[in-house]
Amino acid sequence: MMGSPSKGRGDYGGLSAAELASLKARWRAAGLHADETIPQMLARTARERGDVSRTFHSDERETREITVAEAYELSRDWAARLQALGVGPGDTVAVQMPNWWEAWVFGYAVLTTGARVLPIHFTYVGHDLDYALRESGAKVLFMAERSRGVDCLERIPALQSLPDLETILVHGEEAGGRAKLWRDVLADPAPAFEEPQLHPDDICMLLFTSGTTSRPKGVLHTHNTMLAEGRTFFTRRRVDPANPTLLSAAVYGHIGSMIDLVKGPLSGLSDAVRDRWDARECLELIGRYKVSGMSGTPFHLLSLLDLVDRGFGDISSMKYFSMGATTISPTHIQTLEDRGIRATRVYGSTEHPTVCSGDPNDPLQVRAANEGRSLPGIEVRIVDDDGADVAAGERGELVTRGPELCVGYLHPDHNRNAWLPGGWFRTGDIATIDAEGYITIVDRKKDIIIRGGENLSSKEIEDALILHCGAREAAVVALPDERYGERVCAFVIPDGRSEITLEAIRAQFAAAGLAKQKAPERI
Prior knowledge:
Helix 9 (about 280-290) crosses helix 10 (about 300-310). By secondary structure, the protein is of the alpha/beta class. The chain has 15 helices and 27 strands.
């Protein structure tokens, strides 16, 4: 067992003390790092703009609006109760909940104790759940009793063998085995809260993400890295001043739901939250709150547009949409432009949440063609396999550095090849940068299909399937083949307007001037 991460402040890509001090001085001068932790930020914003709120919606429980001021008061009370359970600086507390208001407040409470929060996707069970808890050395698990027809108490017996897991807290009406009901903990008289000594560079968050390794990687973020993300989040993302409410349907356990801990209080913007994606319900919320801004994938907005076209609702209040996390084609941006929505592409990862973003003020042809320019304080380079910079406009691996970048991985092995000297994070994505600083992701370094000795770009084929072949979404992978080594295999979600067959794809690839070996051989 790896056990709990150290009580230090991260590897920072192996930077020397002098290099790190120089970078942090630059970020502090720009106002991107500061002498403030997330609990301190929450306390300050509770005083300054305590009426900023999040309204949580679900089809299995009552709607609940909670303000920043309420979240602050509750988080202090809950933190005192966690302290009484032995939670303190350096501990890890796991949260496996739907995106309910309790998960949001509980996250603040964990950070207030000085512990780090580990959000776990609600659907993780068995090996995935065991791995996250075991590798992190989680001391406490906060979980729902039931949601979406799932009896979560059935997961508890399998957790008995985790030596570091001391307490399981269940939000609901009953608990099983050695678990405790959270409501019983809240029913006890509130203990006194002892203010811990926190530092903005303390590790406060751990998220597991899949990558090119066989084991999920634990990404370590600090108060400063997460707050820097919140400070730059709305640099190019927009809302209509007349209708400034956002819509969020991020899964709890994803980096997007963790950014929600900081972006609302820092920006002063309220949002409507849906605990899971349901296009019809989200469309209703857009109409009710006159939502003007949203982030997501093409699937999210296209599913809304499908309902609008069938007469189920109105999306006229939507003015801005930031699109990322998957393959984005120019037609996606054009489709939204035709509806009066200024769409932009955005690029980031769990390790570096937002690297670059398009600007809604840019012309359509610019927004449609690239992921935009890097955000304030973020540096980017394009390098070859040896880590040397390539010529301007040439393809290479995108490496990044900046105030939002994580400070390392939980497991030391995962740090060894993840950074170049100087603290440059290797994204594993192939990109170009033009003379004006616009970044275009052209492929994923590990997703090259080698067919008969020829390298084929997965992303190029995915783009062609979306542009020419009636696919709403596409993912292209290598299919092992005895003769050629690898063949092209495509997974697609049809747009509903075209029949997708191998024969039709071959014809459409040929008509588009694409080499025949790029056409999928299995779908």
